[in-house]
Design brief:
With 344 residues, this protein is of the alpha/beta class. The chain has helices spanning 30-38, 59-69, 96-115, 138-158, 183-193, 204-209, 214-223, 250-262, 280-303, 306-312, 316-330, 336-343, and strands spanning 4-8, 45-50, 72-78, 120-123, 129-130, 164-167, 177-178, 198-203, 227-232, 268-271. The protein folds into 2 domains: 4-303, Divalent-metal-dependent TIM barrel enzymes (TIM Barrel), CATH 3.20.20; 307-344, no CATH class. Strands 3-2-1-10-9-8-6-4 form an 8-stranded parallel β-sheet. A two-stranded antiparallel ribbon has the order 5-7. It is globular and about 60 Å long.
Length: 344
């Protein structure tokens, strides 16, 4: 299986957090970010937001740059959590005017996406949730959110757009609790809505901080045929650090890639990275290296009987040894320059 890799350009400029509101780097224009992606081997697409990264003013220029670098716009998301009106919610907000504005924003993303033949659009319920116990009536919140989703899908079908809309679950941040905070919770809403264009984007880091068995969650969503997109990153399960995939736990990355390969996933491998202190292009390159390395491990595992071992499901030590040996044998040769530098 060849991993089609795309990069979310939101993490390629000067990034800020609540402890450093100025960031550590310099601002990079949207156009320069796209060019940087285009100059990175192994990355063939981009993801971005309406209107913070693309709008009617710069769409023509972005279209030209995409053509110049042979890039595809893979995912276009309506930004519904960066403005004051979305402070307490967006698609599920108690104020019908706020919900209408959020729906309109997503429709704009769909309209813009149609121009670029974008296959997916993510809904992230970032501010739909709560910060205190009993602050929010979750039953009513789910009713409002589902109603907004149905309105969006009605618009999508009315315009005959082929875009797949994906819920991206995350347990917390920016709210203390975000609705649909687990993969299974998101899948339950997807199945309730029951629309062929409505599915899930699993963000690996989000699943990890939810303490999920991520191999299980990918399998669950793939079994339901609702995995429409992926976001790859990594963390130590304490915070959504968004470091390159495979850096905190490479075996976990291998397990994800194995399940995707087994189920013939043919979608994109999105990179959702936040290099607050490091170089964004280096983050991309390391991500490509680790995804390619992980896939090489999976290929060797299949050649050496992994599917038969998994089918029996009775010999954990044998599978562990097989995984270890395939990682060793698939490992790329050491960079001689790095080895010499380390020796000196």
């Amino acid at each position: 299986m060849r991993n089609k890799i795309c990069m979310g350009i939101w993490g390629m400029t000067n990034l800020r957090d609540r402890f450093n509101i100025n960031g550590f780097d310099e601002e990079m224009s949207v156009i320069d970010r796209i060019k940087a992606v285009g100059q990175t081997d192994g990355v063939d697409g981009i993801e971005l937001h309406v209107p913070t990264e693309i709008d009617d003013k710069n769409a023509d220029e972005i279209e030209k740059v995409l053509k110049d670098y042979g890039l595809q716009m893979v995912q276009l998301c309506g930004h519904t959590w960066t403005e004051k009106k979305y402070k307490f919610g967006a698609l599920g907000d108690t104020d019908p005017k706020v919900r209408a504005a959020a729906v309109k924003r997503v429709k704009w993303a769909l309209d813009m996406g149609a121009r670029f033949n974008v296959p997916t659009s993510v809904l992230w319920p970032a501010t739909d949730g709560s910060d205190f116990p009993l602050q929010t009536d979750y039953v009513a919140l789910y009713d409002r959110y589902v109603d907004s989703v149905r309105r969006i899908l009605e618009y999508l079908h009315e315009h005959k757009y082929g875009t797949k809309i994906c819920i991206e679950p995350k347990p917390f941040e920016p709210r203390s609790w975000i609705m649909m905070g687990t993969t299974a919770a998101a899948l339950s809403i997807v199945q309730e809505v029951d629309d062929p264009n409505f599915g899930i984007n699993i963000d690996v880091g989000h699943s990890l901080i939810a303490r999920e068995n991520i191999e299980d969650m990918f399998s669950l969503v793939l079994r339901a045929k609702k995995l429409f997109h992926t976001h790859f990153d990594d963390n130590d399960q304490q915070a959504d650090c968004d470091i390159p995939p495979g850096c905190a736990n490479f075996i976990r990355l291998v397990s994800i890639l194995y399940v995707l390969d087994q189920e013939n996933y043919d979608g994109w491998f999105g990179l959702d990275l936040f290099p607050y202190r490091d170089n964004a292009v280096d983050f991309m390159k390391l991500s490509v290296e680790n995804l390619r390395f992980g896939q090489a491990v999976v290929d060797r595992m299949n050649e050496r009987g992994a599917r038969e071992l998994r089918a029996r499901g009775t010999d954990g030590p044998a599978m562990s040894r097989l995984t270890r040996d395939c990682i060793r044998d698939a490992a790329p040769p050491h960079d001689s320059g790095l080895s010499q530098a380390s020796a000196s």
